[in-house]
Amino acid sequence: MKIEHLNATFQPAKIGNPHGLQITYLKDNSTRNIFVYHEDGKEIVDWFNAIRAARFHYLQVAFPGASDSDLVPKLSRNYLKEGYMEKTGPKCPFLVQLAQSLAVLALMAQKPSVSNSPSPSGCSKCFETPGSCVVREKLFQCVIWHFLTPQQTEGFKKRWFTMDDRRLMYFKDPLDAFARGEVFIGSKENSYKVLEGLPPSTQGNHWQHGITIVTPDRKFLFACETEDDQLEWITTFQKVISRPMLPQEYAGVFPGEAGCQPWPRCVPGAGGDWGSGRRSLLFWWKPISNINLSWDWLGRPEE
């Protein structure tokens, strides 16, 4: 448990105890949650202060030129917002898009003309006249478009969400040890934005107050139970998106996750299956040279 990535925040409502404390740290490049409480309020406050003191000492060594007033705000942080929303999205974008791409190739081989196929303007000719010389040059680009454009492949599911600085994480249960997925929320300068409502073609949401987060790569769809919840989440997202990104956020790798690769992939969890107790997720941040700052979430098939 490295002090560098340690955080503590009081969570009496979530834990169900007035002296509840949530401790987070990085474990195998994933955020690990520990929920603790004590019947003696002073004891839990002492632990909280001890964590902050250890963090302060670490930051003094790591940033010898920084003043105490600069370091104190970094000792611990509270979450910007937490609560339930419904979410949807690809169960595994890599595998889903691979299957879609192969299906597109097979369809092109069987039919000389494919109309009404979903495609961007630059790829429409690939589907309408796949036999032309010009199309052959664009065929690979069109297949790549299909491969990299996630579609809604699962219904909406109610999940617990936590906004931790620029990381939006979701959990099946508020007290889960690991998040099932997370997405990095960048700034408006890098083409991130939040919209009220859902795309017209969206289906399966039980809650009617939709939110769409637009990233350079894809859209993330959510639904809130009440209009007040929707407004609070939108306000939170807008504050994050309107805030300029820090130099370390432009570095391309989240703290503690060195060696990230450019493409997302699904991996089995501990024990080699999808049903293990820990998170079966890897997150990759794409290169800053392409102004492509979107984390993607990949999850196990959910029960």
From TrEMBL:
GO terms for molecular function: GTPase activator activity; phosphatidylinositol bisphosphate binding; phosphatidylinositol-3,4,5-trisphosphate binding. InterPro entries: Arf-GAP_dual-PH_domain (IPR052589), PH-like_dom_sf (IPR011993), PH1_ADAP (IPR037849), PH2_ADAP (IPR037851), PH_domain (IPR001849). GO terms for cellular component: cytoplasm; plasma membrane. Residues 141-242 form the PH domain. It comes from the Eukaryota. PANTHER family: ARF-GAP WITH DUAL PH DOMAIN-CONTAINING PROTEIN 1, ARF-GAP WITH DUAL PH DOMAIN-CONTAINING PROTEIN 1-LIKE PROTEIN. This is PH domain-containing protein.
